[in-house]
Amino acid sequence: MYKVLKREKIVPNIHLLVIESDAIYKNAQAGEFVVVRADERGERIPLNLVDWDKNSVSMMFMEIGTSTRKFAALKAGDEIATLVGPLGKPTEMTKGKKILCLGGCYGIGALYPVIRAFKEQDNTVVTAIEARSAYLLYWQEKLKKYSDEFYEITRDGTQGLQGHINDFLQEYLRTNAVDLVYVQGCTYLTYLSSETTRPYGIKTIVGLNPIMVDATGMCGVCRVIINGETKFGCVDGPEFDGHQVDWENLLSRRKIYLKEEVYSLSFYECEKYG
Amino acid sequence: MASKIVPKKTPMRERPPQERVKSFKEVPFGYSPEEAITEAKRCLQCKKPTCIPGCPVEIDIPGFIKFIAEGDFAGSIKCLKEKNVLPAVCGRVCPQEDQCEKLCVLTKKFEPVAVGRLERFAADWEATQGESPIPELPKSTGKRTAVIGAGPGGLTVAGDLSRVGHAVTIFEALHKPGGVLVYGIPEFRLPKSTIYREVDYLIRCGVELKLDFVVGKTATIDQLLKDFDAVYIGTGAGLPWFMNIPGENLNGIYSANEYLTRANLMKAYLFPEYDTPIVRGKRVAVIGGGNVAMDCARTALRLGADEVRIVYRRSRKEMPARDEEIHHGEEEGIIFEFLTLPVKYVGDEYSWVKEMECLRMKLGEPDASGRRRPVPIEGSNYITAVDTAVCAIGQSPNPLIPQTTPDLKIGKWGNIEADEKTGKTSKKGCWAGGDVVRGGATVILAMGDARVAARSIDEYLKTGVW
Ligand SMILES: Cc1cc2nc3c(=O)[nH]c(=O)nc-3n(C[C@H](O)[C@H](O)[C@H](O)COP(=O)(O)OP(=O)(O)OC[C@H]3O[C@@H](n4cnc5c(N)ncnc54)[C@H](O)[C@@H]3O)c2cc1C
Ligand SMILES: Cc1cc2nc3c(=O)[nH]c(=O)nc-3n(C[C@H](O)[C@H](O)[C@H](O)COP(=O)(O)OP(=O)(O)OC[C@H]3O[C@@H](n4cnc5c(N)ncnc54)[C@H](O)[C@@H]3O)c2cc1C
Ligand code: SF4
Ligand code: FES
Question: Buried-most residue among B34, B197, B374, B382 (CB within 10 A)?
Answer without folding.
Answer: B374
